[in-house]
Amino acid sequence: MRAVFVHGEVSAEELQSVIAAAGASVQSAATYAFGDVRIALFVGQKFFFRTNDHLGLVILGTSNGTTQRIDISVAGKGAGAFGGMLGAGDSFETDAYNALAQILASRSLQFQSVDSPATD
């Protein structure tokens, strides 16, 4: 999982576009607010031949209008003999992160990424 801290805010539409840019299709989306905090949740999936299965991608963005935290994570496992992701999860997450980084750079927004240890 990657957490990205943004000085500023990207829109829910831009966050949703990250899923398509990573080659996945959107399965569900929700946006809502609690007071000043806006939340956007997107779930997508993509089929990977190397795992013979679909992997999920979750993007969660929370913002107060000044700063934003965006979490990117993959979910699932392969259907092959060992049930592993064989690196597909890492590349899927990296593709989503790179798409997000492009959006942030194009908008000249400063950001910091924090990576969690790999689980696949």
Q: Quick check: average pLDDT? A: 85
Q: Taking Cα atoms only, what radius of gyration do you get, to the nearest Å?
A: 14 Å
Structural class: alpha+beta
Percent in helix:
10-25%
Q: Can you tell me the overall shape?
A: globular
The stretches of 5 or more residues where confidence is low (pLDDT under 50) are: none
Write down the secondary-structure element order.
Answer: EHEEEEHE
Spatial ordering of strands, largest sheet: 2-3-4-5-1-6
Query: Mind summarizing the main beta sheet?
Result: 6 strands, antiparallel
Count of the separate structural domains = 1
Instruction: Count every beta strand, where a strand is a DSSP E run of 2 or more residues.
Output: 6
Between the first and last Cα atoms, what is the distance in angstroms?
Answer: 11 Å
Portion in strands: over 45%
Summed up, the helix count is: 2
Structure description:
The chain is α+β, with helices and mostly antiparallel strands. It has one domain. It has 2 helices and 6 strands. It has helices at residues 12-21, 88-106; strands at residues 2-7, 25-34, 37-48, 53-63, 67-75, 110-115. It has a 6-stranded antiparallel beta sheet, with helices on one face. Strand 2 and strand 3 (37-48) form a beta hairpin. The longest helix is centred in the C-terminal third of the chain and has 19 residues, at 88-106. The N and C termini lie close together (11 Å). The mean pLDDT is 85.
Write the layout of secondary structure elements.
Elements: E1 2-7, H1 12-21, E2 25-34, E3 37-48, E4 53-63, E5 67-75, H2 88-106, E6 110-115
Helix pairs in contact: 1-2
